[in-house]
Amino acid sequence: MSIPDRPVPIVILTGAGISKESGLDTFRDADGIWSKVRIEDVATPEAFHRDPETVFEFYNHRRAGLLDPAIQPNAAHKALARLQESWPEDVMLVTQNIDNLHERGGSKDVVHMHGELLKARCEACGNVAEWHEDLTIDTPCFICGSVGTKRPHVVWFGEMPLHMDKIEWALTHCGLFVSIGTSGNVYPAAGFVSMARLRGQAHTVELNLEPSEGSSLFHECRHGPATEIVPAFVD
Ligand code: BV8
């Protein structure tokens, strides 16, 4: 694995493509999630305000799907966990994904910049808790007791991604930035490669099934299924 000789953190960004071979849909592939529902109807604060039931149903369906025992971490998730084990202080794993397959594959301290499907948040008290059941508008907050204030702990379009200060710091100090399984369509994640190159002089690598929107911005691109190219890159 081409790691610069400077002892600086490695930053990895993953997207839906790393979970595809585990059985979870991507978003922008031909059969992707956004080919079945519109972002404006299910993944914006306006949609939630206008029609919470539809938004709850969208995430309840995905949550139940993720909890299906057939959905398991794959060789790519496990390879990244091995990498973290080899470089415990030097790897920051940032994911756009809201699934928990990195954790179940053995990764620690996963930075979920778009939130987590198996967590719910109370807008009244801010409490974030593990949540594996269906959410409805009537689900009370078991911390403050408010009703009508629970939502999926997910970052919608138009909302600020989580942990951006920590991510931007790592990008400006890393020697290696690796982007895995993302189409490079969604910002600010799609801009991370430029941030790593311009402010951090990192070596940048894209591991994806096919060239992404931002492929030309990377020093190195390897294309193929994540379960093949990620272990090959890590090991
Ligand atoms: C924000 C959670 C500002 C929900 C998601 C410029 C700068 C800043 C913002 C913008 C900007 N331009 C536009 C924006 C607004 C917007 C945006 O980027 N819109 C896009 C559509 C143009 N961004 C935002 O709104 C973000 N917020 O900027 O806030 C702000 C500032 C101050 C104050 C307040 C706010 C928030 C974006 C987060 C939205 N939430 N996820 C949920 O999951 O339901 S994003 C959504 O796209 C997905 O959830 C996913 O996380 C994300 C990225 O998708 P990918 O992971 O890349 O998936 P995709 O299907 O696209 O690609 C899969 C790839 O895998 C493909 O390339 C495929 O080839 C590959 N693949 C397939 N199979 C395999 C494979 N690779 C390997 N192996 C395989 N087997």
Automatic annotation (TrEMBL):
Cofactor: Zn(2+)
Residues of the Deacetylase sirtuin-type domain: 1-235
Subcellular location: Cytoplasm
Positions bound to substrate: Y59, R62
InterPro entries per record: DHS-like_NAD/FAD-binding_dom (IPR029035), NAD-dep_sirtuin_deacylases (IPR050134), Sirtuin (IPR003000), Sirtuin_cat_small_dom_sf (IPR026591), Sirtuin_class_III (IPR027546), Ssirtuin_cat_dom (IPR026590)
UniProt free text on domains: 2 residues (Tyr-59 and Arg-62) present in a large hydrophobic pocket are probably involved in substrate specificity. They are important for desuccinylation activity, but dispensable for deacetylation activity.
Family per similarity comment: Belongs to the sirtuin family. Class III subfamily.
Protein known as: NAD-dependent protein deacylase
Active site positions: H114
Keyword Zinc-finger: no
Amino-acid positions noted as binding NAD(+) in the UniProt annotation, renumbered to this chain: 15-34, 96-99, 181-183, 208-210, 226
Cofactor annotation comment: Binds 1 zinc ion per subunit.
Tagged with keyword Glycoprotein: no
Record-listed E.C. numbers: 2.3.1.286
Reactions catalysed, as given in the entry: N(6)-succinyl-L-lysyl-[protein] + NAD(+) + H2O = 2''-O-succinyl-ADP-D-ribose + nicotinamide + L-lysyl-[protein]; N(6)-acetyl-L-lysyl-[protein] + NAD(+) + H2O = 2''-O-acetyl-ADP-D-ribose + nicotinamide + L-lysyl-[protein]
UniProt keyword annotations, A-Z: Cytoplasm, Metal-binding, NAD, Transferase, Zinc
Gene3D superfamilies assigned: SIR2/SIRT2 'Small Domain, TPP-binding domain
One term of GO molecular function: zinc ion binding
Entry function: NAD-dependent lysine deacetylase and desuccinylase that specifically removes acetyl and succinyl groups on target proteins. Modulates the activities of several proteins which are inactive in their acylated form.
Upper classification of the organism: Bacteria, Pseudomonadati, Pseudomonadota, Alphaproteobacteria, Rhodospirillales
Organism this protein belongs to: Hwanghaeella grinnelliae
Protein origin, superkingdom: Bacteria
Assigned GO CC terms: cytoplasm
Residues given in the record as Zn(2+) binding sites: C122, C125, C141, C144
